[in-house]
Amino acid sequence: MDNRLLDEHSIIQLCFVTEDLNKTTEWLSELTGVAAGPVRPFPPDESSIYKGSRGHRFGCQIRFMDFGNIELEIIQPDKSPSAWRDLLNEKGPGFHHFAIKTRNLTKRKAYLESKGHELLQQGEFDKGGGRYAYFNTMADLGALIELLEFDNDKEPQP
Hints:
Layout: E1 13-17, H1 21-32, E2 40-42, E3 49-50, E4 53-54, E5 60-66, E6 71-77, H2 83-91, E7 94-102, H3 105-114, E8 119-125, E9 130-135, H4 138-141, E10 144-150
Parallel strand pairs: 1-6, 7-10
Antiparallel strand pairs: 1-7, 2-5, 3-4, 3-8, 5-6, 8-9, 9-10
């Protein structure tokens, strides 16, 4: 088994969850002078995995803010159970995860699970052009770790 998490020496994204996407991103834009991108709907997808099973129908709306050295992702989840909704229900709006780009989600998933970090949620984005996976690192980090794998930059895997 591969004994590392990073393919590259960088964290590519920080994510916050909110109950009001527009209010939060407008406030951040005013505070920082960085414009938020357009609202991107992330519709429910029954192939997504949540807490070990498929068939959960959860979705959200997302806006991104590009700070040059890192991307901020702001998510407003729908009311369905999800890793996003869980954090909002338990703690309110705030920091949710940091994201790491990987070329091999299968290997990195096995690595995190071998360290005792369970997979909370997994799905596809950009019409199947990539995959994401959230791992429960709350006890150690106070936030989740997200792995992002893009089809245009992935290693062959089983």
